Amino acid sequence: MMILLSAAGFARAAGATTREEQVELLRRRALAWSARNTPDARRMAMQCLEEATQLAPERADLQLELGRVMERMGFLKEARKRFEKVAAIHPEDVDGRIGLARIWRRDYLKYLDTLSLGRSVRYLREAYVLRPNDPDIAIGLVPLLLERGDLHGALSVVGEARVAAPTRADVRLAEGLVAYRAGQVERADSAFGEAVPHMPTAVRDRFEDIAPLATMRDTMTLHRLAPADQAEFLRRFWAELDPDLATSVNEARLAYDARVAQAYFLYYDGRRREWDMRGEVYVRYGPPAHATYNPVGSAGVFSVMDGSGFYRRFQQFPLNTLVWMYPELGMQVVMEDRLLSEHYLLPVQTESDPDPLPDPEVIAHQGDQFATNSGRGVFPTLPPGVHPVRLDGVIARFEGAEGPRVLALLATPGAPGDSGRASFAVLDSTRREVKRITRPLSPSLCDPVALRVADFASELPPGDYLVGLTIDDGRGGRGIVRDLLKLEKPTAALALSDIVVSCGRAAVDARGDQPPAVRLNANPTAEVPPGQALTVYFEAYHLRTGSDGQARLEFEYTVRNAARDSRVWIQRVLHPRPSIPDVSARREETQPGDIRRQFVEVPVQSLPPGAYRLDITVRDQLAGTERSQSVVFYRVDDMPGH
Q1: Fewer Cβ close by (within 10 Å): the C or N end of the chain?
Q2: Cβ contact 264:203 at 8 Å
Q3: d(C-alpha 596, C-alpha 495), whole Å
């Protein structure tokens, strides 16, 4: 016959006679059970500690151990009560407050409730006051302060932690996170570069892993490469995403590192050596606008098939559902806790892919963020602390004496007394920098009172390039334009340059026996004010000349309405908008030489405000060939913008 004894009965059976002896034996047995780390063992440990606290309710250490066991078992409310007793029994105790902070932190991460966040911060602050400059408390406090928007407090705490533990990698990691949020991008870049290589391998892998952002094809390609080739693949991957080619840091990589650091501090499970789906979604899209826990209409159960054939049946198990909302991305993310352990996974779906993806149309209409090529990640265009300014840029292709020639033109609002600098950067097909030029902005001939401009010219060999234009207004504002550029090797066939919208005719400088140099009064906004004609410039190359050295060519231009009717189809059918007639003209000319530098003035004063496309066709009458190019421009009214 088996006799079941309580924990106190075990203590008495073991010969413990005094209360102190019984309590000590119960405590040791609880520690032994806890070390086994199984659900049954934790229940036995909890039973021992409960009876020990009944025998010695004044002992804060027993209340603390019981609270920790209850927390591990998921009895969070009961654990909180035990930690509160610790604080009441021993007001100077630090660990009880840290336990309370953990409980409220878990509550915040579940519901994103600001009250829970505030309580977690409060208890950690109290612990930090009692144990100043403790780096572990500081590292727990920093991400919560950032969640609360207390950047100044986070900077202060991480600065103190750096003094207390200057060699700890996780402290340096927290510094990089806070520095990025403060807009100190160079400091953040340095901190991440020093911290990540010294983090544990499982954590370091989270920073180096591009799988959350990349396509499956890129991920498979990366894993097949040798280590040296993997490093080059990753360098190019991040170079493709760099929003501002003119700066010394990659803002997209910094934003990713900052997200990974915050997700590590909030969601990383050290025992599992991973985070759940919340961590992956966070590094891809950042924090959600708000969250819903077990929303109305969620099933609350999931089914598992048991058996097969005639004996097949489905068993249902409870689950918790967490929904993160990203209205700025047109997206919501549904996650399920199927083990009721606060470890969230994507739902199991057979009819569609549950992988969360933003709405491309929503992203396309937002200039402050951009999606990765896979669509599986979204990053801010500018780092924190930098506000966007309008930048209109044009990157045009011409032919130079030695090969392709690129002309980059930009314009930004600015008064006569404003300062600022413009930069032009070019990456080649391997995404390595081959050109960088920086110069001050200057008054625009289009509008010297309200616009500042800059232009850049460079001859480049044929190939594929990534070109970036950036302006820094010197007051915390920045504008960015990026574009892919393909330069073809010139041939002997008729070719046209790109068309550039100009403010009136440009100056042409004669240079003796050299071809004349054209100085464009570029109009990167492509806006034509009321009462003015459209002026554009282009060049035609490799015209065939006759025995007299003359080339004969024909120009034809047509202006068409380019405004897109965004109404639904039924509205377009029932209430069609009046059509705008095309504006077209044609003329023939004879000229010496095989290159034509041409200005075209198009009378568009009668056109209503809107977007239009100018198509230009050049026909070489001697060769019997023709080429066409087009450009979009905007007829504006008296109101600014288009």
Answers
A1: N
A2: yes
A3: 11
Residue 408 DSSP SS3: strand
- Same-domain status, 475 and 522: no
Residues 504 and 626 in one domain: yes
Number of domains in the chain: 4
- Per residue in 473-486, pLDDT (tens digit) is 999 999 999 999 99
Convert the pLDDT of each residue in 517-527 to its tens digit: 566 788 999 99
pTM above 0.90, yes or no: no
| CA dihedral of residues 237, 238, 240, 243 (deg, nearest 10) | 160
Determine contact, residues 559/515, Cβ cutoff 8 Å.
no
- Domain membership of residue 64 (yes or no) is yes
Q: Which residues of the chain have pLDDT under 50?
A: 1-4, 13, 640-642
Q: How far is the C-alpha of 52 from the C-alpha of 47, rounded, in Å?
A: 9
Q: 143 phi and psi, to 5 degrees?
A: -65, -30
Q: Which of 489, 524, 541 is the last residue of a domain?
A: 489
State which residues form the domain around 564: 491-642
Terminal C-alpha separation, the chain: 91
- 407 token code pair: 């002309």
The span from the CA of 330 to the CA of 351, in Å, is 21
Residues 261 and 281 sit within 8 Å (Cβ to Cβ): no
- Residue 131, domain member (yes or no): no
- Two tokens, residue 492: 């002997």
Last residue of a domain, one of 449, 473, 489: 489
Strand-pairing partners, residue 514, are 511
Clarify whether residues 464 and 591 are in a common domain.
Answer: no
Let me know if residue 111 belongs to a domain. no
Q: Encoding tokens for residue 441? A: 């902005």
pLDDT at 307: 56
* Secondary structure E strands in 269-312: 290-293, 301-306
Residue 197: partners with Cβ closer than 8 Å, 6 or more residues away:
204
**Which CATH number goes with the domain that contains 3?**
1.25.40.10
Count the Cβ atoms, other than its own, within 10 Å of residue 380: 15
